[in-house]
Amino acid sequence: xxxxxxxxFRFISTFSLTATLVITLWAYFQLDDTFEMAxxxxxxxxxxxxxxxxxxxxFASFLITWRLILTIxxxxxxxxxxxxxxxxxxxIKEKKEYDKEKTIEWNTIINNDSxxxxxxxxxxxxxxxxxxxxLLNNMYNNTANxxxxxxxxxxxxxxxxxxxxxxxxAAESMKPLLLTNIPSDYVKIKSGSGQISPKNIYIIPxxxxxxxxxxxxxxxxxxxGKATYDKLLVFxxxxxxxxxxx
Length: 246
Known about the structure:
Layout: H1 3-37, H2 41-102, H3 106-110, H4 114-124, E1 129-136, E2 139-146, H5 152-156, E3 159-161, H6 165-173, E4 177-179, E5 189-191, E6 194-196, E7 200-208, E8 211-220, H7 226-245
Antiparallel strand pairs: 1-2, 1-8, 2-3, 4-7, 5-6, 7-8
């Protein structure tokens, strides 16, 4: 029920009470005079009691109606207050995300060795797991890992060639990728409830002089990875610019 409906409800209730009282009192005086003139005293008293009953019933109905109106008004006020609080929380959350994005010092992150660079990147962007590959002797070698404990077999297979596999194709095309259809055999993210597959995989090549010099393979559990992907594009651009300037 909106404010216009409440106002209309209030007006109808007030009008109905007023009309009932006016008509009842008018009938009371008109008919009571008639009873008095006819010397029907006993009926006059009964009629008076009848009128009093109508007035009391009308007033009680009026009070109930107003109580209902006040209850609706209070409920609507609480509802609006809750909406305002939710809106405020959303605004605060968005502002925190905005401030966080604005305060990312990409140069500070980039100017680190492989492991510190990867750790900082994953920490700042709330990424669950990550790998960094460096180009060496025409092969991409895994030089840093974040939140990953690799088996010996995985360590032995921690390299890839240009154009081979998803990472190799991304390195060859020099184009970043956001994957949401995760292979069933992809590395799992460990949590308190066990091991679960990530929802997003980010493949981010870092290009120097027309060649993919580094490649980041990252994954997380965010419901929507687009925002993180956009920030990674900024990171890749900053990193590539730094390399090409050097």
